[in-house]
Amino acid sequence: xxxxxxxxxxxxxxxxxxxxxxxxxxxxxxxxxxxxxxxxxxxxxxxxxxxxxxxxxxxxxxxxxxxxxxxxxxxxxxxxxxxxxxxxxxxxxxxxxxxxxxxxxxxxxxxxxxxxxxxxxxxxxxxxxxxxxxxxxxxxxxxxxxxxxxxxxxxxxxxxxxxxxxxxxxxxxxxxxxxxxxxxxxxxxxxxxxxxxxxxxxxxxxxxxxxxxxxxxxxxxxxxxxxxxxxxxxxxxxxxxxxxxxxxxxxxxxxxxxxxxxxxxxxxxxxxxxxxxxxxxxxxxxxxxxxxxxxxxxxxxxxxxxxxxxxxxxxxxxxxxxxxxxxxxxxxxxxxxxxxxxxxxxxxxxxxxxxxxxxxxxxxxxxxxxxxxxxxxxxxxxxxxxxxxxxxxxxxxxxxxxxxxxxxxxxxxxxxxxxxxxxxxxxxxxxxxxxxxxxxxxxxxxxxxxxxxxxxx
Length: 457
Prior knowledge:
This protein is of the alpha+beta class. It is built from 17 helices and 18 strands. It has a single domain (14-452), classed as Creatine Kinase, Chain A, domain 2 (2-Layer Sandwich).
């Protein structure tokens, strides 16, 4: 998230929190696609991580991008920590370990998304190349220890860094040593949100398997295909994972609000200053728990929006839905991720088919699948079927949905070809992680260094 929200509208009841989510309802013609991707910057001379400061640091990249794009800087305690397009159509931000993130504009087609990604990568390369910096597209930092990983000067991350070891064992690795690709998608109504949330919550582990690309930690195989996904199993289980109440046939906005109210907060933002609020839930905040601890110590809508951004379930509900299951990866995967989910969720026939596929999937077995996929990838078994076979079926449904959308580019091609990288994975039966491991044990000579050539932007 590039910039935390400021909205001083007072909150007087939980009904207003439900209405906040419901305000995301949009007719289908207004549905958009917002794609986010993260990547690890590294020095090409020695494959070392890039610090924030210095003439060849991340600050220098941001300053160069600010001049190039004309975007507004985001400043935190005097430090530039991101950029935002002046009309809100996209942003660049930093994750805790220096992961460089593009939060794309809300766009109408995957064609536009892919053009946006390619333009961004070209622009950032024009700045970074002169500094001897490139970017690695994988789900986990394959080489650097946590101690070697830089720390970005972002206030909310200081609070999170102190809090994470109190609620799980892997939170700092999640913050500093993982990358993801996400897509944000719209819904028409509470019923439409429910259908999309349930289908995508059930299928999120299928996406995790398809995008698995984090088999190395500190220059050695870690025994997993998606280390990033496995990390989330022990980061902070109060705010992450598969949410059982989503499986209810009458799940709605109020259920998500009720859950979110009882998740501990991270911070309260007042006049540009961050106050640690990890000792209270939002419900306690509404009941006056911070009245004497922070200025204007009763919650407002900006606090609610910021709190929602600190929840990390497999699918996150805000005024749109965020698909959170995929590892970061090569540039072609950045376009493939939104194509996969748009195909499944934005066409009526495809959504019906995805619902039929997953209709009787129960929470307990979906959770078992979620636990198995980080290590087993496409070889995990669900109801006596390999995930590879289920993935193939979901890709057929997604292909149908994209074909039905019939959004053509200037050459007359629809959006189905963006699924090709995923169709290749299913056809060969091995994930990117397995491909990397094979290379590591053969042509890479048990060295991690070639990954910085073969998976770099």
